[in-house]
Amino acid sequence: MAAQSSDAELRQRVTKAGSVPELENLNNTNATTKAEPVVMLKDQPSAKKWRNWWIRGMLSLLMIGLSGAVVMMGPMALTLMIFILQLKCFHEIISIGHSTWPKELPLFRSLSWYFLLAANYFFYGENFTPLLHEFFAGSTTQATAIIQYHRFVSFWLYVIGFVTFVLSLRAGFYKFQFKQFGWTHLALLLVVATSQLIVRSIYEGLIWFLLPSSMVVCNDIMAYLFGFFFGKTKLISLSPKKTWEGFIGAFWSTVVFAVFFSQLMASSPFLYCPVESLTLYQIDNEDCLPPVAVLPQTYTLMPRVQDILLLAGIERETFELQPIVIHAVVMAVFASLIAPFGGFFASGLKRAFKIKDFDDLIPGHGGVTDRFDCQFVMAVFSFVYYHSFIKVYNVNGILETIFAMQPEAQIEVHQHLTAYLKAAGQLE
Predict the structure, then answer these.
(1) Can you tell me the distance from the alpha carbon of 375 to that of 217, in angstroms, rounded to the nearest whole number?
(2) Phi/psi at 393 (nearest 5 deg)?
(3) Which residues are CB-neighbours of 286 under 8 A, at least 6 positions away?
(4) How far apart are CA 233 and CA 194, in angstroms?
(5) With DSSP H G I counted as helix, E B as strand and the rest as coil, what are the percentages for the chain, rounded to 5?
(6) 340-352 vs 368-385: helix axis angle to the nearest 10?
(7) φ, ψ for residue 242, nearest 5 deg
(8) Which stretches within 149-299 are classed as H helix?
(9) Nearest partner of 273 among 293, 258, 257, 298, judged by Cα
(10) Are the C-beta atoms of 191 and 358 separated by less than 8 Å?
(11) Which of 8, 198, 291, 366 is deepest in the core (most CB within 10 A)?
(12) Could you tell me if 402 and 410 are in contact, meaning their C-beta atoms sit under 8 angstroms apart?
């Protein structure tokens, strides 16, 4: 009888549409309550404005410094930092959906975290298969078997979670539980998948991680500064404190930053050489050939540009430039014009649930998701752009195929490759 009474009470809390009455009341309140006037940063009281300035500024410098220190500790430390940030972002996003979940329903939190761990097992296995084969070479057969069959293991990890979810369904709450199932998978797509693209960029070379991520940081800082001093024209209703002045000022600042920062980074083999170890950078790796993107190339000026230069007394038909500068400008344009929509998306999500920030972990900034919403969008673009226009070969993909072969086939590949390199004069 007690169990039946508990179920009846739960059903009263969940409407036929699969929502919670308290949440419906909140939406009704939003619809009838007039929005409070927004005060731009420029027009806020001086004491409050400058107090927030110092809080945000000091914490921003602290976060940049800590991130730089982690980068210098090695690729494993950097990967671990991204994993920890991923966990926090997932917790913040999933907590919004769980805030309206009747706690009496079974496995309502544990199952979400189980799917997170299963997704990370799959993605990290995909990213690190060649490196793990080398790391565990000559180790136990169990370790190599897990690496070799990790896709099959990943599939069954998901199946276990899927079956568990189906068995946890309770009459009267189907729609509500399926909404939470979808919410969990949306969080996995937004957080886990994008963070794994960041990790893959690290091992392609630190420059492909630091360059796009630093552009987002630069754009965010400059948008705040221009908005702080000059902002008066509202940019978008989803984020009413964002201004056109901040948006335009951040755009040009990010482009200029990209031109100079890309050239600086392209001068260091430490930054552009691929990371070929799970734990260490190859700082003294003399075998690393500079990629084409960092080598100066000769370009021909357009005839009209040549004519304009002649009017100024300058006779020039060609000029030299590192291709990475062009790539950096393209990334800067995306970081300035498109990546902010990740922040607008997050603002809309927060407004839908009537919350100011995803968390209050970082004073003046909010939660980790509030700081990384634009990074998620930038991570996808930079990964796709790099593999479409910059990367010309994929050694890891070739190694993954070779490591999956039988030993006899691996020896045969080695013999053919050795014969080819000798014939080409690359080996004696």
Answers:
(1) 9
(2) -155, 165
(3) none
(4) 33
(5) 70, 5, 25
(6) 140
(7) -80, 135
(8) 150-168, 174-187, 194-204, 207-230, 244-265, 269-272
(9) 293
(10) no
(11) 198
(12) yes
Token pair in block for residue 317: 């038909």
Widest pairwise Cα distance in the chain: 95
Please give the span between the terminal C-alpha atoms of the chain, in angstroms, as a whole number: 85
Burial of 335 (0-12, 13-18, 19+ CB in 10 A): buried
Torsion of CA 72, 74, 77, 79, to 10 degrees: 110
CA separation for the pair 331, 383 (Å, rounded): 11
Phi, psi of 279 (to 5 degrees): -120, -20
Helix (H, G, I), strand (E, B), or coil: what is residue 298?
A: strand
C-alpha 387/C-alpha 393 separation (Å) is 9
Please state whether 255 falls in left (phi above 0), alpha (psi between -120 and 50) or beta.
Answer: alpha
How far CA 96 is from CA of 99, 169, 187, in Å, comes to: 5, 21, 11
Report the C-alpha dihedral over residues 338, 334, 83, 87, rounded to 10 degrees: -10
DSSP of 89-134: HHHHHHHHHHTTS-TTSTTTTHHHHHHHHHHHHHHHHHHHHHHHHH
What are the beta bridge partners of residue 239? 236
pTM listed for this prediction: 0.80
Tens of pLDDT, residue by residue over 296-351, are 999 888 888 888 888 888 888 888 999 999 999 999 999 999 999 999 998 888 88
pLDDT tens by residue, 80-122? 999 999 999 999 988 887 766 666 676 777 899 999 999 999 9
